[in-house]
Design goal:
Layout (H helix, E strand, L loop, with lengths): L24 H11 L1 H6 L2 E5 L4 E5 L14 H19 L7 E13 L7 E7 L1 H9 L4 E12 L5 E13 L4
Antiparallel strand pairs: 1-2, 2-4, 3-6, 4-5, 5-6
Length: 173
């Protein structure tokens, strides 16, 4: 499977159509919805994207399950990963042109209960880290912490995911 969007000039290049002075979060949501081929393949839907959080959903489909009839751990992690990345995009909407790369370096997953049915992941980015990236200038590498909470179809908290990102900034034109 291929994707229409590629970022040969860096992470922020994909978002060149976004006005940093007046970010269109609905347009950002449409862009990120098509950006990750594996997420599209698995049926991930970006349900909400804003400056403070992102919400993604994965459907209740047999191919996303495990042998116990619950949502597979890999599918849960995919939802958390996409939610965290989308939360970063929303938080950086006014500064996306400065982002050279955004990479997940490490994560920690705590599965609390078996997930059943449609899964919803709510991603957020540490507000202090957001402030640091937004105020930084010039080429540099920064650490950014994210978090995703996973809820099953009944609204039960089934997992917590800590996300450790590395962000590189590029010189802005």
């Amino acid at each position: 499977m291929t994707t229409e969007l590629k970022a040969p000039m860096g992470f922020g290049a994909v978002f060149a159509s976004i006005d940093p002075d007046n970010p269109d979060y609905a347009l950002l949501q449409r862009i990120v919805s098509r950006l990750i081929p594996f997420g599209t393949h698995a049926g991930v839907v970006v349900a909400e994207l804003g400056p403070n959080r992102a919400v993604v959903e994965i459907p209740a489909e047999p191919h996303l399950g495990n042998h116990l009839g619950t949502v597979h751990a890999g599918a849960q992690f995919l939802a958390a990963d996409v939610a965290g990345a989308c939360a970063f995009v929303g938080a950086m909407a006014t500064r996306l042109s400065a982002i050279g790369s955004f990479v997940l370096r490490d994560s920690r997953v705590a599965f609390r209960k078996p997930a059943v049915g449609r899964l919803r992941a709510i991603g957020t980015i540490d507000r202090d880290d957001v402030a640091t990236v937004l105020s930084s200038v010039g080429e540099q590498r920064l650490d950014v912490d994210g978090r995703a909470l996973l809820f099953d179809e009944a609204g039960v908290l089934v997992g917590k995911v800590q996300l450790d990102y590395v962000v590189t900034l590029v010189q802005e034109a």
